[in-house]
Design brief:
This protein is of the alpha+beta class. It is 22% helix and 36% strand. The longest helix has 18 residues, at 49-66.
């Protein structure tokens, strides 16, 4: 996806997406060094599946610690 820096203001940039139909304020610390007004950006969003696995693992550990067993259907039962 392409975006354009419309203007820089203090600690954020006003960025235009989708043929100037979407406007967002983005903190400059999240942008590459050297951006300037009129600068063209290539923007890419990706799903972090590894992060989802970590969350699932954390939930599994918490369930084990609390004595709750979660089977693969999502049903939980108290384990004594």
């Amino acid at each position: 996806m392409r975006a354009v820096i419309e203007r820089l203001e203090d600690d954020y940039a006003v960025v235009l997406f989708r043929d100037k139909k979407i406007r967002m304020k983005i903190p400059t610390q999240l942008l590459p060094l050297g951006v300037y007004q009129g600068c063209s950006l290539k923007v890419l969003f990706k799903i972090n599946y590894g992060g989802l696995e970590k969350k699932s693992t954390m939930n599994d550990l918490l369930n084990k610690l609390s004595g709750v067993y979660q089977d693969n259907t999502g049903n939980g039962a108290k384990v004594s």
